[in-house]
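Appendix B. Chain record.
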Amino acid sequence: MRDLLPYLKLFKKHWFGLSLGMFLGFLTLFASIGLLSLSGWFLSAAAVAGLTIARETFNYMLPGAFVRGFAMGRTAGRWGERVVSHNATFKLLTDLRIFFFKKLAPLVPGKVSNLRDADILNRIIADIDAMDHIYLRLISPVTIGVVGIASLTAVLCYFDPELGLTLGGILLVLVLCWPVLFYKLGKRNGAELTQNKADLRINTLDWLQGYSELTIFGAEQRYRDAIYSAQEKLLKNQFVNAHFAGLAQALLMLANGWTLVLMLWLAADGVGGGQPDPLIALFAFATMASVELLMPIAGAFQHLGQTLTSARRLNDVILAEPEVVFAEKPAELVQGFGIEYRNVTFTYPDGQVPVVKDINLVVPAEHRLAIVGQTGSGKSTLLQLLTRYWDTNQGELLIAGKPLKELSESQLRSAITVVSQRVDILNGTLRDNLIMAKPDASDAEVSAAIGKVGLEKLLEGKGLDDWLGDGGRQLSGGEKRRIGIARALLHNAPILLLDEPTEGLDKQTEQQIMRLFDKHFVGKTVVFITHRLVELEKMDSICLVENGEVVEHGSHQELIAQQGRYFQLNQTL
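Structure tokens predicted for this chain:
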């Protein structure tokens, strides 16, 4: 149960709605038991009165009014309880998803690098949805059940303390034993159900995303069989759950039936020491109605194992400490936006060999630096360290004379624009995919940025309202890259980081983009990563990196004159 504590704390924000839902649930239960109990007494009393002289004095109107009132109260209370409880629960789940995402975002990529995308998606959707069981199937039914048993016992004790306490004691024993029994029965199956649901989602997403490659290499059937296998396991878990739910109801009805027999036997000689009268029917029908107190509780604890497993899966993320922690207060930047690497060494968490080793590099403000080298030499890692995608193992990085760890996240993001190798297109309109870089940008600014990167054709038809991503307009790799460059133009930060920005573009488009960069470079500190030694003479300096180390550093002319490694690479073009 300790695994549920992080989520119970979120209940404080919605205490009124959740408490009101339980109160309405109790009133509904009270009306339901009152309706059946009073109806039993009323019918019996009316039958007895009809056979005696009391038929002329028996008050038919008042009990009838209460019966009608209880019936209307039960209907209205059930509707009100559903509306209030589910409204509060949905708000709670909304807060929980936001809370989970806030905890998840700082863990990327470090702590969640070993989690599959589908597994993270399953935690955000299915595992968080399982948290509504805490209130709807655990807290609310148990609270209403305990209060209901106490209230029913108190009312029945007014007529006969012995019978009232007997029924209350039986119900209390069932409340204490039933949850433990069905928690034990459903614990293992609930844990398996949660895991198999995640496996099914992972296998299905793998099959969907890789369908083309799987078909080409003849592996599609194997992945489809994995989906069927996970589905069969999940269906088996659901069958066991349904079996336990039916068993709980059957045993509860059996216990209620034997309790009814016991109460009839005890009340047969009369209620409260009097002669046998219609009050016997009141106790009998109250016993029959008491099953409504217990029915939700067995189901609640049957699903507790599933809820606890989901909570543990969420806690793997929520309770994890991020590897990168930003300063809360922004530092005061008094210099221009220069960049400095001081003795920087970095090894990936699961790696053995450093990716970059003892890097010392100074990029003055408004300076253009090109970092060149073969694939895997550590060029992109240098940019990831600068954006605090990772933190260095040794040494430190500085921007504007301040260590990165002293900058707040908003301060760092506003100072840097990144055009990475991978540009993600979100499911949304063309406008949505661009104003993320500048939320207050006007349509004219967005259209101008699109035109500058040569994507005017995207403005045809629906224009900025055209839908991109899944179910929308599909973009080529080159078009996605240019969308990324358009975002950089809109963000317009003083530091510009370019990681192979023209990769995948044709020669003509590449030249167009490079001319655009020439204009956009003015007044900015630029770090340009490429493995293609093209137009590097326009850069202020060039840094050649091999095996994570700086091999040569200087201007294009200086490095050519040295006739070293950079000169040899140019000669091979």
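Further analysis of this model is presented in Appendix C.
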